[in-house]
Amino acid sequence: MSVSAHLPVAMVALPMLTAIVCLLLGAASRGKDEDVLQRQRQRQRQRWIGGLSLLLLVGLSAVLLQQTADGRVFVYRLANWPSPFAIALVVDRLSAIMVSLTATLCLFVHLAAARGKDARGRFFHPLLQLQVMGLCGAFMTGDLFNLFVFFEILLIASYALLVFGDGTHRTRASLHYVALNLVGSALFLIAIGTLYGMLGTLNMADLVARAAQVSPADAPVVRAAGGLLLVVFGLKAAIVPMGLWLPPTYHAATTPVSALFAIMTKVGVYAIIRIFIPMFGPQQGAVAGVADPWILGLGLATLALGTLGALSATEFKRMVTFLVVASVGTQLTSVGLFTEQGLAAATFYIVHSTFLTAALFLLAGAIIHQRGELGGRLSAGPVMYQGRLLGLLFLVAALSAAGLPPLSGFVSKALILAATPAAWKAVVWTVVLVTSFLLLIQLSRVGSVLFWNLAGDDPPKGPRPGPNDSLVPAVVLLSFSVVLAAAAGPLDDFTRATATQLYDRDAMIERVMTDAQPPPKTRRGDPPPTPHGFARRPGQEAP
Amino acid sequence: MALLLTITLPLLLCWVPLLGSRLAGRHASAWLAGLVALGSIVSLVVAASGQAGDAVQLVHVPWMPHLGLHLNMRLDGLSLMFCALVLGIGELVIVYARYYLADDDHRDRFFAFLLLFMGAMLGVVTAENLLSLVVFWELTSVSSFLLVAFKNDKAAARRGARRALGVTGLGGLCLLGGVLLLGDIVGSYELSDALASHDRIVADPRYPYALVLVLLGVFTKSAQVPFHFWLPGAMSAPTPASAYLHSATMVKAGVFLLVRLWPALAGTEQWFLMVTGLGLATLLFGSVVALFEDDIKGLLAYSTISHLGLITTLFGLNTTAGVVAGIFHIMNHATFKASLFMAAGIIDHETGTRDLRALGGLARHMKSTALLATVASAAMAGIPLLNGFLSKEMFFKEAVDVGAGMSQPWLVPTIATIAGAFSVGYSVRFVWDVFFRPATGKLPHDPHPPPSWMQAPVALLVVLCVVVGVAPALVVQPVLEHVSLSVLGTQTPAVDLHLWHGLNLPFIMSLVAVGAGVGLYLRRDLLTKLRQRLPALPSGPRVYESILAGMFRASRFVTESLHRDSLPGYVVAVLASGLVLGLVPFLQAPSLSVSRVTSVPPAPLIGFVLLLVLGALATVRLHHHRLLALLALSLSGLGTALVFVELSAPDLALTQLSVEVATTVLMLLALFFLPSRSPKGEQPSGRHIRDAGLAIAVGLGVAALLYAVLTRPFSTIADYYIATSKSHGGGTNIVNVILVDFRGFDTLGEITVLGVAAIAVSAMLRELSIPRPEVAEDGRRWSLDRHPFLLRVMSRPLLPLLLLVAIYILLRGHNLPGGGFIAGLVTGVALILQFMAGGLSFATARLRFDLVATAAIGLAIALATGLASMLFGQPFLASAFTHVHLGPIEFELASAMAFDLGVFITVVSVLLIILVRLGRVGVDASSPSPDPSPDPSPDPSPDPSPDPRPDPSPDPSPDPSPDPGGPC
Amino acid sequence: MELVLALGVGVVAACGVYLLLRARTFSVVLGLSLISYATNLFLFGVGRITVGAPPIYDASAGAVAYADPIPQALVLTAIVIGFAMTAFVVVLALVAHQRLGGDRVDQPLPEDEA
Q1: Do B647 and C30 touch (CB under 8 A)?
Q2: Residues 6+ positions from A152 with CB-CB distance below 8 Å
Q3: 3-state DSSP assignment of residue C56
Q4: CA nearest to B662, candidates A179, C33, C8, A188
Q5: E strand or H helix at C20, and its extent?
Q6: Alpha helix locations (H) across A452-517?
């Protein structure tokens, strides 16, 4: 098969390989723990390898994006078995978008961390790579159980990254986060089991096809599994009521890690889109519409409560964590409209909010650092060294977060409002507009406290920005808010095409299930004996 | 194209002034800003010169086709007039500010913000696409926020700015909603389409909502009652900003939108009631309050409010003549109010105060300023021969005409006259108290005439007031007609501007107003008394702030009551949601048939399940005594394994057993450092009930779900695996073939998880150091026997045997129960047993190689097997196999076995990393500090967990720290 | 037979949930292990129940009704992942116990930490 056909698996294999290399490097300098110089050199090597690999990954994901743009769908059947028996990586437009997001975001997280924040442990880089591997796999796999496996990879990597660095509140937050997610995994397994027990397959497309034929008598069981899946994904996406864990957890993480977590909630939202649009969509007969009312309702509730949380916050980073919750709510609301436009708007918003959230966390890190012992507390503080620059960046971020023109925040919100069907206009518009107003109020307040309400005048009293706190990653991530707004037209086209593709259930099933004749498997070495004529077909008899 | 330039110049070059003082001197920024504005003026002239009288010039700038959001621009009479206002007065303000801010360190920023605002304002008035109008609308709010908060070290400035942003921002959001609704009705966001479809819009059921939303935007921006309060608060802006934003431009954006959408939205009862009603209220309220303001700028602010009310009223009347009058008054108000603000700024600048009670007798010191201010206020008061008079006359006329059609014909004219009287009153007060009455007291610094260039802009505007007032027919009539034509099109009325219409009712009203106004000023002490009698109106700011405060309180309450940051809380939320979402489908279901006969369980199964269940129950019962609970737990695990055996899953049984052993060892080690008992009665008794209830509910739910699945027919893809595993997977153990071939990708992921766990664990433990308890909590000393003799003797010979078994299991795994996992786990357990027996030094002496590295190598092997298949043009992980003949033995060798080898290596090293590291924790603690008790320290019997400290006897091998796990 | 298994799984799950909601980390660990037993059995069970027909392909046997191998493979994966997670949680519990000076799941934070 052609080289480009291997792209999907490369997105998983490359980070894994990099992680292994980093680990072996770390091992190479074993025993010389005391040799600081040695450790630095070895960390430097890890930085380079990790960064280059991420750069390469961004390139690959760009190719994926370009290849899928015209509607092509990669179906990569692992181990060369036919569908639905092989685990298949299925890369359509949405998957391409998500993996590109992941690669880009993680590259900047890497840059932000590689300036010294990774020094607290030799395992940051392998862990980051494995996190990327888990994310990419989760965004591409077309197999339900395989999705579980990749969830576990990205989760355990995130556990490890969360514990990164010490601090008691961090420890407790990790404990909660881990235990809660283990419960989530158990629920996930039960849901998978139920689906397999009812439908007898694990390939998502096959599941979709079979779910449509379920008899009304059996439907409730499948629907129940759907309900459980919603809880599992809702837990990852941090929807209320399952999502209360998010603010303390993200608040506890170190700056680059919480920036990285900007993509973690998206995993949940992605899974909801991936499963609930086709499998429990309108054409699915007896199992149709399991979650329709729930998703919209919970989304609106999440948006409202996240906004209230942001309003109530007395510390900057904590407010940002609540902004994350609110953005999740917005995405869910938009998905919950269950219209193509709604889904397109949600996709647009996902791209926008991933970069914005990460930028906000990096910004928070810098601000908290430069305000010295006052940290992020929202009260009159010292003049910051980079006060003006930070102020400008905050202004941009705040505009985008509150959905004010002309940045991507406004565009995506306008898309969502415009996508709302008449039936929901009243409630959705009210919630979205009111929350934007409240965020506007709070952000203007926060901004004027942080940058204008200064106890004492120059010279700055806060600590100087060290080499560890370059603002470049934050600036670039923020600039995406501008770029996305400027390129809103093409991006809008792409997301709409994405939505159309996602709603075209039959085409997807057809693509995944029809067996693209894998070339016969030859034995390595001498020609195969008779029994190995390998055009595999389902239901083939044993010799 | 030139039009595009007009708007983009200030927006894109707004940063230029920032270079100002860095590049050249203190005032460079002002000149740079002036230059940019000039450029934009020139391009506007170019653009305007290109088009005929009533032509409309459209520039298309596509942005988001699907959404219908474009930056299309439109140049017609109305937008041209407003562009002229924005740019003309903007240029004057820049000149003025260059002197006003002469000694402000931050003027660069001021001019940058000013240009930003200018661009945004131009965008609003030239917008052809309604959505892009909203975009620029909000931009004006933001940039005005920055301008008002310019003196941001003053709390008042910050508060005023925030309030302004809040109110206008809210209006902007409403406007967005209204515009989106309009777009739904019209089917396009293009202004032209909206203007063309008045009838459709008005007839549509959504019209009232759209109207209300749009008007909310208008009223907040144009400071109509009850949203007026932000404007006086915004007076903390530098006076040039006030002269620009709060007289000529931003506050006019609202009324601009009124007249812009007039052809589309007006002409209905709702329009008349809402617009005229609020307009009149604002007109009256503003003029009354202005009379009692002691701050000059406050007075001007309220007078602005009242004049905006006047304009709003005119547009609300649904008469074309009203529209013309409104447009006319917009121009006039802009000219005289801007000049008055600038004059106020001069006064403030020269005397250091804006308090009317302190000021007085300035006419002697600054004659020219006095003259200019007097003329301008006369215009404001509507004195003949000045522009204010003309538009006010027109207003009175409209008031009379419209009043005639109403049930109380006197109402509107009366209100108009009263308001006129008050405006005369405050105008007189402004002039007289500041300039002509004898000075009351000492001023902050004694006044002297301002720099002449600072007065030039004022003079220019005042001259305009006079010229227009004297010769309207010549000067403005063509302009006014042109503008009105662009709004009203064919139905434009004949515009005739004359000073003298004869002694008609409007003129009498004017006379009354002037007379009464003077009277009001003279006897305003009476009014003050009266005002003190009346109950004070709730002040807008206070209401607004208290609403916000309420919201903040509410948010705090909700958040605190919701986010308790408690694990049980989270778990309950998740499980409860799971129950609900899992249960609902069954409640909706019509019937729940059991369509498959269930079979009778064989006796052993019952026994095993009982073991499982009893183990679990015992664990709960004993969970306060942790050791016993652990034993009970492992019973339950044993039960699980046996169930697997009984239900024909040998691989699972093996895996479960070995994992069970490993887990138990792990937990015993943990118990060594944790308290050995969980105290009882920590949680309120109610909690136990609740938890038990939830637990039972969940248990029932799981059981029901499983039963529901088990009793339903089943068709699965498994048959394919069974059929092909031997022929094409090269192994008879189907489970193993699935693991390493069919679903090898899962396995790869799974060992990755193991790897991460190992890394994380060693990292966490590296920084962990726990002083090893000398004495168990129940007071017993740990057993003194370091390495139980029996265990030592038994385990040594056992090792090779176990390893042999492991290899065997590994090799046969592909065909018989076994495989990488099980082999790895067995090996791991075997080694662990050794270390328990031999103690740590024994372990480390045999672990000279780096475990993390070996784990990585294991992963690498697995990954490599996967990648290798790509070299053969196969997909990742595609396996191949062949028959190998070694003399008599003939067996199949599958490439999947290499994969399994990788799995094996990973599992072994991970197991060792986790358990050995955990075993060393106590050592890491005690080795740095000299141990107080040198006596050979005890093994934590009764449980056989490894000795956590090294032999005190000098060990030949210095502990080579068997993994590089740096603390994260 | 189905009923027995279902009930067994249910009871174990219930016990697990109850322990999970206790105040101490160790109880939580116990609870999680019980839950993983229940989950694995559930996942195993959905392949339907077969006695005495392990999925070891036997060409001579001809058409045998083997036990469904897929859930077995899945459960095997799940068990191993579960082990990794348990190991992580146990060690994390130790770390928490040392850093927070107690093994409550909601251990109140020492004052020095914000």
Answers
A1: no
A2: A134, A185, B749, B750, B753, C81, C85
A3: strand
A4: C33
A5: helix C2-20
A6: 472-486, 488-503, 505-513
Closest C-alpha to B722, from B733, B708, B709, B707: B733
- Residue B887 tokens, joined: 């003399």
Answer whether B623 touches C (CB < 8 Å): yes
Residue of C nearest to B678 (CA): C24
Q: Which of A149, A175, A196 sits opposite C71 (nearest CB)?
A: A196
Question: By C-alpha distance, which of B292, B288, B379 is closest to B338?
Answer: B379
The answer to whether residues B164 and B270 touch, using CB atoms and an 8 Å cutoff, is no
The residue among C2, C40, C113 with the most chain B CBs within 10 A of its CB, best to mutate, is: C2
Tell me if C91 sits within 8 A of B918, measured CB to CB: yes
Q: Minimal Cα–Cα distance from A175 to chain C, Å?
A: 7
pTM for this entry: 0.92
Q: DSSP of B621-635, one letter per residue?
A: HHTTBHHHHHHHHHH
* SS3 call for B283: helix
Note down pLDDT in tens along chain A; length 543 residues: 688 889 999 999 999 999 999 999 877 655 545 567 777 888 888 999 999 999 999 999 999 999 999 999 999 999 888 889 999 999 999 999 999 999 999 999 999 998 777 777 668 999 999 999 999 999 999 999 999 999 999 999 999 999 876 667 788 899 999 999 999 999 999 999 999 999 999 999 999 999 999 988 889 999 999 999 999 999 999 998 999 999 999 999 988 999 999 999 999 999 999 999 999 988 898 999 888 889 999 999 999 999 999 999 999 999 999 999 999 999 999 999 999 999 999 999 999 999 999 999 999 999 998 888 888 888 888 888 888 899 999 999 999 999 998 899 999 999 999 999 999 999 999 999 999 999 999 999 999 999 998 776 556 666 676 655 678 999 999 999 999 999 999 999 999 999 999 999 999 999 998 865 444 443 333 333 333 333 333 333 333
Q: What are phi and psi of C17, to 5 degrees?
A: -60, -45
Q: Can you say whether the dihedral through the CA atoms of B354, B360, B362, B368 is positive or negative?
A: positive
Q: Where are the alpha helices (DSSP H) in B534-649?
A: 540-562, 567-588, 603-622, 626-646
Q: What kind and span of H or E run contains B74?
A: strand B73-75
Residue type, C3: L
| Best A87, A154, A172 residue to mutate vs chain C (most C CBs within 10 Å) | A172
Q: Taking a contact as any Cβ pair under 8 Å apart, which residues of chain B between 721 and 750 contact chain A?
A: 721-724, 726-728, 741-746, 749-750
Chain A CB within 8 Å of residue B355 CB: no
Chain C residues in contact with B821 (beta carbon < 8 A): 76, 80
Q: Is A457 exposed, middle or buried (0-12, 13-18, 19+ CB in 10 A)?
A: exposed
SS3 content of chain B, % helix, strand, coil (to 5): 70, 5, 25
Please count the CA atoms within 13 angstroms of the CA of B729 that sit on its side-chain side. 31
> Which chain B positions have a beta carbon within 8 Å of A77's beta carbon?
875
Residues of C whose CB is below 8 A from A169: 109, 113-114
| Other CB atoms within 10 A of residue B935 CB | 8
CA distance B639 to chain A (A): 19
Q: Does B854 touch chain C (CB under 8 A)?
A: no
Taking the C-alpha atoms of residue C24 and residue C17, their distance in angstroms, rounded to an integer, is: 14
Query: Is the preceding omega at residue B226 within 30 degrees of 0, hence cis?
Result: yes
Task: Please classify residue A44 by burial: count the beta carbons closer than 10 Å to its beta carbon, then call 0-12 exposed, 13-18 middle and 19+ buried.
Answer: exposed
- Maximum CA pair distance of chain B? 131
Question: What residues form DSSP beta bridges with B459?
Answer: none
